[in-house]
């Protein structure tokens, strides 16, 4: 499996930094994971967006899905779309209200919102807490602790396992998803403080403790907000899990 970082800025894009977006690849199958603000531009820098075989959105906050509107325009109106060589509908796995919420984001006004339907572009498939297959990958989804329906993922291929926390506070589901994985891609949006709201994000300290307790092979930190000191987050995580790393936009990691 290969992981490419399209964007890793948390909560909002930063200067020359896209919000959440990742590619997971095996056997030539391209699985998109998140498509936040600016991630589509970064996707086009590494591949043709029509080469995406499926897209997963862990939840529907804009920093994880805003560029779906732009992808819709590209797939719907590109003058040289590769059809009928490829299926027209892109499989899109997301919380069950994605068809409505993404249509609302795409529509320019109230009149068109009532008529907007993205089912000519996407094959919507609701995420649930279950195990399923996407191309060559076995995927386990589990609902995590966030203010809106949100899922963490455990993605397996060829005996290797990648876990992605999505956005979540500490919870039992994250412990299960991360258990013994080769690579944990963990959001770490802020430094640790008792004043942080519960059930929203992980701190660097909490991400490090999660990785340590789950005995993961490698910890990659992502989703650090532009206003947060990434060095401080890394120092917290490294105290619990020596060798933790902060991901970089454009970086590629083998799992």
Automatic annotation (TrEMBL):
Pfam families: Lactamase_B_2
CDD domains: RNaseZ_short-form-like_MBL-fold
SUPFAM superfamilies: Metallo-hydrolase/oxidoreductase
Residue ranges occupied by any Metallo-beta-lactamase domain in the UniProt entry: 18-205
GO molecular function annotations of the record: 3'-tRNA processing endoribonuclease activity
PANTHER family for the chain: METALLO-HYDROLASE YHFI-RELATED, ZINC PHOSPHODIESTERASE ELAC PROTEIN 1
Protein's name in the database: Beta-lactamase
